[in-house]
Structure formats: structure tokens, C-alpha cells
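Page header: ASSEMBLY MODEL / four components / 694 residues total.
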Amino acid sequence: MTSAPINLKKLSEMLGLSQTTVSRALNGFPEVSEKTRVRVREAAEALNYRPSPSAASLATGKTRAIGHVIPVSEHRMINPHFSDFLAGASEAYAAAGYDMLLRMANAGEEEGIYRDFASRRRVDGVVVHGPKTIEPRIDLLKSIDLPFVVHGRSGSDTDTYSWLDVNNLNAFQQGTQLLIDQGHSQIALINGLESMNFALRRRAGFEAALEANNIASDARYICSADMTETYGHNATLAQLNLNNPPTALMFASILPAMGGVRALNELGLRPGKDVAVITYDDELSFLQSPNGRDTPPFFTSISSSIQAAGKRVAEMLIQQIDDPKQDAINELWEADIVHGKTTLSTN
Amino acid sequence: MTSAPINLKKLSEMLGLSQTTVSRALNGFPEVSEKTRVRVREAAEALNYRPSPSAASLATGKTRAIGHVIPVSEHRMINPHFSDFLAGASEAYAAAGYDMLLRMANAGEEEGIYRDFASRRRVDGVVVHGPKTIEPRIDLLKSIDLPFVVHGRSGSDTDTYSWLDVNNLNAFQQGTQLLIDQGHSQIALINGLESMNFALRRRAGFEAALEANNIASDARYICSADMTETYGHNATLAQLNLNNPPTALMFASILPAMGGVRALNELGLRPGKDVAVITYDDELSFLQSPNGRDTPPFFTSISSSIQAAGKRVAEMLIQQIDDPKQDAINELWEADIVHGKTTLSTN
DNA sequence: ACACTATTCCAAAGCGCTTTGAATTACTGT
DNA sequence: ACAGTAATTCAAAGCGCTTTGGAATAGTGT
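Prediction written out in full:
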């Protein structure tokens, strides 16, 4: 049955009430008696009344929509981590009655979209993805007064805005320490793009662990690029072709780690036996098995759910939109070390 | 500089024109002289005037937004193919001035969201992802009169609505034939979930090729599940543990194919040498290298860009929204066979 | 019973745009 | 110069909601 579109006016006429009262009843204002509130609600339900978002938005100035601007890097590469992040975020939005507006932008061209969002009042807030160490988007958003939460952090002034980040430094320090504890001193870091702040912090953690154990850091053992499977593959081949090659590999993401394992296999090297492998793992949903994770998991990893992060970031943003003058929220999540088959088993 | 929000009224006052004229000038109506149109445009530009989408939407009944409802399967698995599809779609939206509204839904629960979209007039149209053979969403969308385009097809009445699909039957028939031509007669199909129509068509193509070559189809060689890496890994192990195991593997997606290769490596089997592998490849951007594809590519594949499909689907939908009474558009794309290292080289 | 405070409800004014129907102005040909 | 047509412009009425400032009704203590 195609339900005829019914609006506030009609609904209030049928009820013999004013639009004011109906609107207030539906929106939970206190100055309407419980009796009429129930009556209104039931009628609205029965007639399938749905307030028009455009009209509400025009009247209130709020859109009940959050913008996500997803950077697309060279070669139209779109990072698969986003789908999991968005899945988490959308949970929070659904719970709070918000919509998610998505826009893709070539990396570095996000600002125009933020300006557009702000000047047209298209969204109530945005989440900032992939912050660089120096992050002009943050200054822009502050200046145009568009609420935002950053997934990750920039390199400075991190107490002046809200963010949620994984403790990448700590995570990579611990991961590296694990390898060192297992006897490795030649460890390669297959890092992400170091213009990204998270990659820089990971490297810092890596180097801190080396230094704490008096291991000289070797620049040949570090590389950095967009985190694709192919990159992991090629970087691994390159590392193992060095004279005096590394005995352990540390990957910034599970995709290059998969490429790395593919390369090891091609070289006839067994991950976990001949070469140790640790990877950071965002717990991407599509890499899990239909019946839960492998037991034990294949990769030894430093692990934190990006989906959970997406959910929390969205909650933080909504909270901030509801109360714009509240203080910035900063959350630093610790990653978990998960022992898999790609390092020595620790008993 | 924080630009003060300017609206039509103010703009027209400054110009000494009516709101009507200014609105028409900006929206390209013919009944305004070129001279004033230019004057208006320049003023709008200079003052950074942006019409309010809510107001425009309220006045026109159009939202200039398209809804995407992404199914989340069990275990909150969100298919990474979507990000590439959406990247393609968003190109078309950006070009046409549309926004993309994203919502996640547990598989099978999409209908409530479509109803919500329709009754609140939140979007002008939707794209339907992952059609099943019997697809209630299509009937629903027809009945609530919400324009839509399907990515893929259902099993019946396919001429009654617009869709874009890859010729999966043909693709898998050709892929299978390639393996047969290389001497294989024991070929496994690691298929996607066969409740999805595309998976069914792929299987039909697979079986058609076997039949055309008088090879008996063996049910042990066929399996079906959500297309994760882990699934590919486990399925491959299972296949090769059969007595009389297959000599060639055909994967429905590159993710399980990667898992399959991981399994082969664990078993000490060389893909392309000991076991032939062909996979369907959506040309996922994040699996390409930063500097273009591997040359030659690793996988022999049947390949079609899901990003291109996303763009085209979006264009079709916009076209249909602009002219609702036009005929349904059906596009059937042929996939390309790409020769890689996982089958015998063909010279 | 009365004045007085709460409680409950309402009329009307926006929010910023599009669009109808009419009015003005500019251009024809004779 | 003048009617007649074409080219421009405009005033005002919505679109469907929220919200202000009052008005009406109900409840309280004396």
C-alpha cells in the first residue's frame, strides 16, 4: 500500500489540535499533557506520519547529517579501512537519528568540500580522516566553525580539538620489543605514508624500541608508501634482497602484510619460521572468516578495531553537536598484541 | 575569513532585483537577460552566496541526494568492494551536484530504510546493492515509487527495472574454458554466496563450460560462502585435501583468491605451476600497486572495474530521476580476461 | 467564592528557497 | 507615432516544519 504523504497540518487537523501541540508532543517537549502526547503519537504512528527533514532543517538550522570526506589517493585508490570505519559510525548515527553524507575527494582537496558543507549548511559536523602531521583542515574547520572530530591526530595543538587515536607509538614500540625479545636485531619497518601522522608515530615507536635496546637504526630497513598489498609484496622482496637482510618484518597494515607473506612464499621463506612478521591490524571485517577468526590467528599483530573507533568517533561528534561549548574530548586507545603464527609462539 | 551567511533575499536586495529574477538567473532559466544573469552570477560569486539545500528541497520536493543502503552481513562484515563502487558513484554525483547518503543495514533489513527514505523524502533515488535471485526490495521500490537502479540483477522480470550487471555467466564460462583448454578437467569453483544472483550466474557459466566439454560436474568441487580471504584459505585447504583433488581453482573474488594462494603456499604448492588459479577481479583499487599494476599481473583473472560500474550506475539513476518516464536501462558489461602468472602463459 | 499560579494549548511569524500569474519595459512593423 | 508582440522583471503564495508570545483552561490555597 502506497501511504499517502501526510504532513503536520493534516495530522493536527485530524486530531483537532494545533500544529504547535502536535509538533511538541512528537518532539518530547514538556508542555504537553501525557494524555494528548499518547494520543498524538498513536495517530502519527497509525497514519505513518514522518516529518520532512528538509522542512525541519529549514526551521531549525540543523540538518541531522554528518559529513565524511574520504580522501582518494593517487590512482583513485580508496582505502578499504574506511568501509569498516563507516560501518561503525553508521551504527552510532542510526541510534541517534543522524544521516551520513559521503563525499570523496582527491587527497589534499578536502577543504573545498568542507567549505561547501559549511556555507550551504549541508551537515551539522564532519569527521576528519587521515590527519597529516601538519593538518590545514583542522584550522579551516575551526575557522568556519563546523564541529568536527578527528580520527587520529595531527602533530601539534592536539588539545585544542576532539580526536580519537590509537596509541601508535606505544603499539609499535611494544611490537618491536616483542621481536627483539625473540632475538631479532635486524627488523624492517614497512610503514605507511609518513606524511600521515599515524605513520610517523609508529616509526617513532619502532625507533624508540630499537634505541632502548641499543640497536642502531638502519635506514635501509625502513620504507614508506600507501598501504597496498602490492606495496607490501614489493617492499618485502626488496628488503630480503638486501645483503644482510632483516630477519623480522613489521607491517603498518594487514594489506601490505598479506603482500609480504606472498613475497615470502615466493622466495621459499616461511613466515614465523624463517622470517618473523608482525603487522598492525585494524581488524578489518572482510579479512575475518565467516565463522569467527582463525584460531590461532595467522598473523601476530598489534590490533585495534577500526569499526569500534568509527562508532566512538561518531558518538563524540554527536555529543559535541548537541553541546557545542563542551570541552574537546581526546581518547587514546591502546592496541592489543595478538599472538599468531608469524612469530615464535610464546609459552 | 568567516563569510557571513548570505541568503537570496539579501543578495537580491543588494542587486536591486527581485528574488525571482536572481533565482532564475542562477538556475539558468531563459527568461532573464544575459546581462543581468552575468551581473547576478558575479555578485553571487563575490559574496559567496550558496543556496540552502533544505530550502530548495522544501520548495521543489527534490533533495538532490541519492541513498545507498549497504548490507552488512553476519559478523558485521562489510564488503570492501563497496568502497570502490562508491568512489565511482561519487564521481558521477559530484559532477551532477548530488550528494550521497549512506546507511548500513543488516542484510535483509534494507527494506525499512527504503521505506524511511521514501516516506520522509530523504533522497531522490537509491541504488540497490547485492540483489538476490528473488529480490523483494525491487518490488518494494516499485510500489513506493522510489527511483532506483540495481547493481546486478535479480532472477526474473529483469526488463522491468534499470540495472547494470557484468555478464557473469559468460565471464565464468570463458574462464572455465581457459582452464579446460590448458588441460584441466578437475576444476573447483570457490563461489560467493549463492543466495546472491551473481553467484548463481557464475556457477551456471562454470557448469555450462564443463558441460560443453563433456566434463561431469562434481559437487565436491563447488563451495559457496561470503567472499572473505579466510574463506578462500579454508576452502582451498579443503579442496586440496580431497582425494583426487582439483588441479585448478576458480575464485569468485580476489579476496578469497588471495586466501587461496596463501593456502597453496602453506601446502608447498606453486600457483600457476602445481595448481592453476583464476579469479574474478573487481579491480579493487587497494590491491593495485602505487605505481600501476604488476606487469604481468599476478593473478590470471576475469576482470571488470567495479569503480566504473559505480559511476555508470549513478549516472543511470540521475538520468532516471531527471526523466522518470523514460524506459528502464539495462547494461550488460563483458568482463576481460587478463593473463597473469597463476595459469600457464599462453603464447 | 476569589485571586493567583500552573498547566495546556494555540495563532502566527518565520526559515530560504521556487514558481505562478501579472506587470512592466523594450522592440517590431506600419 | 502607435498598436502589438516579445523580452524582462516582479509581488506574493507556498513548501512543512519550529517556536515565540499569548490566551485559555485547570488547579491551588484562603
